[in-house]
Amino acid sequence: MVDEALARSFEVIGADYDRYRPGFPADAADLLIPERVDTALDLGAGTGKFTRLLLDRAETVIAVEPSEAMLDVLRANLPAVSARAGNAEAIPCPATSVDVVTVAQAFHWFDREPACAEIARVLRPGGILGLLWNHSDPECAWDRAAHRIAHPAVAEQDGTSASAVEELPGFAFVRRAEIRTVETITRADYLSRWGTVSTFLVASDDRRAQMRSSIESVLDADPTTRGQETLDLPVVTDVFVYARV
């Protein structure tokens, strides 16, 4: 069940999300769209972190996002994109009008049954649904420790892509791919990034300060990050491909 408070927490941020959240590897877009298509829809597009990768892969790119704060950033950064206010359960697009729907870092916030029905409605027969998540590398001890502080309820699981291989109504599972990259990020930006996750956004000021302090302690204790102003952060991007049936 979707936690509405956590899901709605992103409605109040835009610029910070765009500044501190990571982008996505171009290889992920190539996997989903190996050949140029007519129309691609990025659903739950946020500030356009993945949307920008669609511009060279589709004649028309549509972005749908419920947060006006995030849409403001997307529109400013990507004026060529048709940015529309809306959500996954009521997509503002005609039936059978798009070739590919992408959902980056957002599918776990959707009400799955009605969202799948809506995605199937707007996709053309045989159209592709791509689900993507960035998450921490399980071999990176310091980032996993920070993750446990920020998301204690899910412990070692992200609570996102782990459930994506389940059957989706109206879709056939095609494949899963895992793309590994290393991001160079400053310590300050790494700490600020945690401030854009849902658990930080809904926390009290005291709780937020406590979590940030605990993550700083992790960085100070790990020999690979202690005293470092620039960090090499391994990132795993999971890509799930489905076809409309």
Please compute the radius of gyration using only Cα atoms: 18 Å
CATH evolutionary superfamily: Vaccinia Virus protein VP39
CA distance, first residue to last residue: 26 Å
The overall number of domains is 1
Largest sheet: 7 strands, mixed
The helix/strand class is alpha/beta
Order of helices and strands: HHHEEHEEHEHEHHHE
Measured as a percent range, the helix fraction is: 25-40%
Strand order of the largest sheet: 3-2-1-4-5-7-6
Walk me through the structure.
This protein is an alpha/beta fold and 245 residues long. It has one domain: 3-Layer(aba) Sandwich (Rossmann fold). Helix content is 32%, strand content 29%. The chain has nine helices and seven strands, in the order H-H-H-E-E-H-E-E-H-E-H-E-H-H-H-E. Strands 3-2-1-4-5-7-6 form a seven-stranded mixed sheet. Helix 5 (112-122) links the parallel strand 4 and strand 5. Helix 6 (141-150) runs antiparallel to helix 9. The longest helix is centred in the C-terminal third of the chain and has 17 residues, at 205-221. The two termini are 26 Å apart. The mean pLDDT is 91.
Task: Describe this protein with a few key phrases.
7 strands; 7-stranded mixed sheet; alpha/beta; 245 residues; Rossmann fold
